[in-house]
């Protein structure tokens, strides 16, 4: 009888030691970085494919919002830009007739100069009068003045045309900015998935009216999860950023499944222990939140309960 009692006492002691050894240093729930994707444009959801549980990659197009109005507005602005080009004129084309007139005048001047030289020779030989030479000199001078006036007109036309063109083209820049704005609205009509992850919740369906800022779906990258656990003040000296710790989850009634995790964040402020969390000292008044990054093998789920151990390592 004494032997039986002795064996029972030893078994009880071993069980107590085993429970103490298995006691976790901190516990909490797994969470992930969740992203809520919202509409960036107003309009009907023409297409939207984001079923819950679907894995999406960053950059995937998951839907299209109706953007007919901004598309028409963009086409109208582009037509206005094209019309501005028709309003401008080329100085070369505008002065073509004047330049032809100048060429004729220069040819006439060359002829008059030859006649002037001939008249001068005749005057020296007393074959022509002085008045004839004076008349010829007057014609040459008059033609030179006409040529100067024609050249001045060409320069003035070039300047006037340039001013007119600049005035017309000054309207082009604001129109181009308006076209860029409409193009951005059209681009925002496409629903582009921002991160690689699993769709957790869908908030909208095809055919519904989307408005700017309306949530469409929630997605999270579940390849890596974070155990948000809580440690009391006496445990803080035992942990540091970048430290590797053991993370475990329940596997059946008595067993555990273990993972290796890395502490990525330690809160700088203490807080009261959440009601659903039991720390090593069983609900200490003030605790510090920590985050432990754990590589997910597919068995970890968001919201799942987990425990962290570091004091026995």
TrEMBL record:
<dbReference type="GO" id="GO:0030313">
    <property type="term" value="C:cell envelope"/>
</dbReference>
<feature type="coiled-coil region">
    <location>
        <begin position="95"/>
        <end position="153"/>
    </location>
</feature>
<dbReference type="InterPro" id="IPR050465">
    <property type="entry name" value="UPF0194_transport"/>
</dbReference>
<protein>
    <submittedName>
        <fullName>HlyD family secretion protein</fullName>
    </submittedName>
</protein>
<keyword id="KW-0175">Coiled coil</keyword>
